[in-house]
Amino acid sequence: MTPLVDLPPISETTPITEILARNAQLYGSDVCLVEINPEVDETRRITWKDFDLVQPSATPDPTNQRRSTTWKKFDDLANRFANLLLSRGLKKGDKVAILLMNCLEWLPVYFGALKAGAIAVPMNFRYAADEIKYCLELAEVDYLVFGPEFIGRVETICDQIPRVRGLFYLGGNAPTFAESLHTLTSYCSTDAPEIKLTAEDDAAIYFSSGTTGFPKAILHKHLSLTSSCFVEQNHHGQTRQDVFLCIPPLYHTGAKMHWFGSFLVGGKAVLLRGVKPQTILHAVSEERCTIVWLLVPWAQDLLDALDSKEIDVDDYVLSQWRLMHIGAQPVPPSLIRRWRERFPNHQYDTNYGLSESIGPGCVHLGVENIDKVGAIGKPGYGWEAAIVDEAKNPVPQGEVGELAVRGPGVMTEYYRDPEATAATLANGWLYTGDMAREDEDGFIYLVDRKKDVVISGGENIYPVQIEDFMRRHDDIKDVAVIGLPDPRLGEITAAVVELKPGRTTTEDDLNAFCAALPRYKRPRRIIFAEVPRNPTGKIEKPKLREKYCGKSLVATQIER
What we know:
- The chain is of the alpha/beta class.
- It contains 15 helices and 27 strands.
- Strand 26, helix 14 and strand 27 (525-528) form a beta-alpha-beta unit.
- Helix 10 crosses helix 11.
């Protein structure tokens, strides 16, 4: 291993690549990434053991479901990929798209692109071929790295993306239209490329979640990425001994940016493929995870499995688990009350953020404020927040307005979309589109998405408030409230209700339950159906509107 050298201090204006280089110098032989992959098809498994990425184990996993690597190998692979890109003529500011399932190689590829001076472009692994093509063109991508799961989709469009100069395949037996990344990087140096980076350099394009149609391309600087490390570490006090369980997709800003708090101090991440309650608890137990970030549906499923005795906490080692935090969507207070009953020793935090504000923490509850469950919290470390009216003037405390945030993690722009950028950014403020209110103690509560507000008979109705109430019903697994056209009132509210397995609650039961709501907030229609959520846990209300608006519903309209 290279002898230790004097390392410059890491600050909030340090390019994030320098944190990786420092960790490799200080903690080179320590395991930093673990991949647990219990659900993958053997034919699609990525194996780079001959590339020396995987950490040897005294007790090898015969199923190859667990792989790990060290900080030194992580950094070496990132440098190899960076040097490959530079040998192919990549210039600073070129774009490198990443179309991979969560795997051990994902983060080294991401950091390799950054080390080369490129803009990393993570892509949603659920995109269909036409969506992949759309995003490649929107972001003006120059190189694409993809894995086995995407061979068919990429082959469909490979002749239609002439700007993409290199197609790199990560896996065995590369298809004829792409080159093997394994083979190419094996000839490249592990020395760090001599590319000068600053906090003001463009670093990444993330795509919006697409719940409002085709996604927008969100451009961030290195400043955004590094600031997320400091925000998260400030909020949750990660140390090098913490082990972060990362379940959500790495293409999104969410969980990866939460791990960045551990990354800053040399803490380990466990990348888990699978969201079953047993899978999550087994990973926490076997890997001694201390921090777990969950989406609402996963937390609900875990609690339901415990309530039904499908799983038993006594079968797992969970005493080291110190923090459960949750975000990406409004969190029902009833869910947290249930969690606290099951896990009374856990710290709990809610984190609010957007891809436009580099994911987590521009507003957060704080583990010390458990008495304020239901709020998203106060401005996070280094952030400001305001609640404003249509003219962007602050509203009186307690009134509903649009939440705006300002801080070092605000995006630079929507790439190649000046109109959308101008509608969202002004004087450093990011106007989130979320409606919120502030209580007398300065805690912010989400009310709903601005575009999701239902206006019925001139009355503003906020679906999240109805959803939170209805989730208290013991038989409801999930619920989404949308507005449907009405010739008299303009819109009426409809509740799309997904019941827990085996439950037989009726419309009459739910109407009686909702009688506790103010009359104007009671759903006018009840629809029993699955509630669709995207990979980051957000309800896909446009899909529900498309499905149900203007069509005959097999449901009862309740006259009030």
